[in-house]
Amino acid sequence: MLNVGKIENGVVLDHIQAGKSMLIYHYLGLDQLDYPVAIIKNARSEAMGRKDILKIECDVDKLNLDAVAFMDPNVTVNIIRDGELTEKKALPLPRELRNVIKCHNPRCISSIEQELPQIFYLSDGPKKLYRCRYCDERYTESESERWFR
């Protein structure tokens, strides 16, 4: 059995779809920051079969939880303070995404004006369909790797 120590103050992202923890790790920029991070890949899970877990010793406000919810809406966020679990919450799909995915319509104003934020809104929750605020370009999950900024 793998044993990873507990954290005193930080966040545990649990129930990450197996294999997605590294995408979330890189997107959150954890490789560029000095926070202690534990990545657990392919942990056994009764509910999911396999899952990933990220343990991060940092304040929850430092993380873009909208991006995490967008990448994997099944993630559970556990907030740890003084070594104790103080809050546990599921993440709803964000109504709006800012600078998480990039519009690939070459005629979109956000492609021409580089300083404009990339804004997508949730147009259909059950289908996880997002559209560009400026040109209404549709985000397709099947091409997700090319959409991330």
Keywords:
single chain, 149 residues, alpha+beta, Alpha-Beta Plaits, 2 domains, 5-stranded antiparallel β-sheet, 15% helix
Protein architecture, described:
The protein is α+β, with helices and mostly antiparallel strands. The protein folds into 2 domains: 10-90, Aspartate carbamoyltransferase regulatory subunit, N-terminal domain (Alpha-Beta Plaits), CATH 3.30.70.140; 96-147, SH3 type barrels. 15% of the residues lie in helices and 34% in strands. The chain contains 4 helices and 8 strands. β7 (119-124) and β8 (129-132) form a beta hairpin. The relative contact order is 0.16. The mean pLDDT is 87.
CATH names the topology of the largest domain as Alpha-Beta Plaits
Per DSSP E runs of 2 or more residues, the count of β-strands stands at 8
Number of helical elements: 4
Instruction: State the low-pLDDT regions, or none.
Output: none
* Arithmetic mean pLDDT: 87
Helix and strand content put the structural class at alpha+beta
CATH superfamily of the largest domain: Aspartate carbamoyltransferase regulatory subunit, N-terminal domain
CATH architecture of the largest domain: 2-Layer Sandwich
CATH class of the largest domain: Alpha Beta
Measured distance between first and last alpha carbons: 37 Å
> What composes the largest sheet?
5 strands, antiparallel
Helix content: 10-25%
Order of helices and strands: EHEEHEEEHEEH
Strand content: 25-35%
Overall outline: elongated
**Widest sheet, order of strands:** 2-3-1-4-5
Oligomer: single chain
Number of domains: 2
Q: How much is the radius of gyration in Å?
A: 17 Å
